[in-house]
Amino acid sequence: MYDTDTYLTPRLCHTKPPATTEAFQLKVFVFQICDSYPQYLYVPTCASQKVLLGSAGFRSRGRLPVLSYLHPSTNAAICRCSQPLSGFSARCEEDEQMLACILRATPSSRTVWIIDTRPRLNAMANRATGKGYETEQNYVGMKVQFFSIENIHVMRSALNKLVEVSDLKAGSDDLNVPSHSIFLDGLQATGWLKHIRAILDASVFVAEKIVEGDSVVVHCSDGWDRTSQTCALACLLLDPYYRTIHGFMALIEKDWLSFGHKFSERAGHLRPFYTGGGNSPAVTPSSAVSMVMDTTREQSPVFTQFLDCVWQLLVQKPYAFQFNERFLLVLHDHLYSCQFGTLIGNNEKERKELRLEERTYSLWGFMKRHLTEYINPLYDAERCRNMDILVPDIAPQQLRLWVMMYNRFEEGIHPREPLLSALTILKDHSSSLEDHLQLLEKIGGADVFPMGFHEEAFDRVYQPAVRCGTVSEYGYFGARYCSAAVEIMGDDVQSL
């Protein structure tokens, strides 16, 4: 069953709006305005129902601007939405009023930045289909900033190329051995790290504007792919809470699950199945191929890229994250395993209709039972609390290929073990030795043997170890003797 402490669907922002200013109010829409939004939404208090409905009607898929995060110090807001249906010249008074309400709701903001995560040319091309982008002439007090994060089709192609480069094999005659230059040229040709940098660039820009006191409104095309990446990473840079294990789970619930990232379509969970038998007479081989192609077109490594960006931050600022690389890899594995219902479904409404909360188990509950595996030994909570913002270095030479993600199953010589992984293993080993030491000290410090305890077993197991030196000196052998002691003494050891 789902863990109610971590399944935080109604939680839209970690820092709730201050009750004294009443800048934003919580409204329950129950999927009426937009079926891909959560049923609980924070909107500006000054926005009337007419403004909300009008803005939703002017936005793609009805995804009007709503609150995602409110900074506790500057009271600047991160809001998110989809592209406007502006075409070449269309305007909407209610939508313009909606953004003006966001500006009034955050008095510290000198302006509201509209962050369009798409390349400008792509946004201009969408005008031909009746969509498009905001113009500063129509939205008073707003500034529009474009970022070159490509669409899902470009990202899917980049991942396919990256997999091919990562899978380069040496030929039997050594004529096809990939040289270092061939690998680097292939990696550059994929454009993967360029895309990772573009996502980080947009997220850093958003976080910096929030710290400066200016609110931002983030959107892409439909507001559930690039928008989720940018908003989630900006929150990660701004708030140390989201860099804890529990906080990162809440962040995924907030900006990915609640706001309708299409996990099932992007991960390819639902693929049509054709048997060619009599059970599905309406499905022909040609139509089955067509359906497979349609679903494949919707697949894209959007969430994978988000985790890759988080890993880049983790490598550069290891002290700022409570979790380690293993945590991200397990999360990515279960995106595709479908063993848990948490990352299944395209939006909150669909998950409720499928009754996943009743019929499946929670990934968060599973991961909470293995927290010791995900702890980062370099995490410094006190240092994080004194930071206004986590600023990464996104220079091209600072971004790395995530080898443990894309080459983790490669046979042959692996690269040098990362420092964090080595420290985690050493910490686990040290903890295990301390447990054995405590048990040996209990056995050695007992004045009276309990009933049923065999002195012969004690002499046979513990005394030889003592003769090897002090407990702290024989380390590994102490663990071996301790294991033998537990086997021989059974319940007598547990009663000490």
Q: Which consecutive residue ranges, at least 5 long each, have pLDDT under 50? A: 1-21, 170-174, 272-281, 287-292, 447-454, 464-496
Number of helices: 22
Provide the spatial order of strands within the biggest beta sheet: 3-4-7-5-6
Give the tally of β-strands.
7
Sheet-strand content, in percent, reads 5-15%
- Summarize the main sheet: 5 strands, mixed
Rg (C-alpha, Å): 27 Å
Distance between the termini: 37 Å
- One letter per element, helices H and strands E, the order comes to EEHEEHEHEHHHEHHHHHHHHHHHHHHHH
Shape: globular
Query: What is the average per-residue confidence, as pLDDT, rounded to a whole number?
Result: 82
Would you kindly provide a brief summary of this structure?
By secondary structure, the chain is of the alpha/beta class. It has 22 helices and seven strands. Helix 4 (152-166) runs antiparallel to helix 5 (180-190), helix 18 crosses helix 21 (476-489) and helix 19 packs antiparallel against helix 21 (476-489).
Task: Walk me through what this model shows.
The protein is α/β, with parallel strands linked by helices and 496 residues long. Helices cover 47% and strands 7% of the residues. The chain is built from 22 helices and seven strands. Helix 1 (49-57) crosses helix 2 and helix 6 (192-212) packs across helix 11 (302-316). It is globular. The two termini are 37 Å apart.
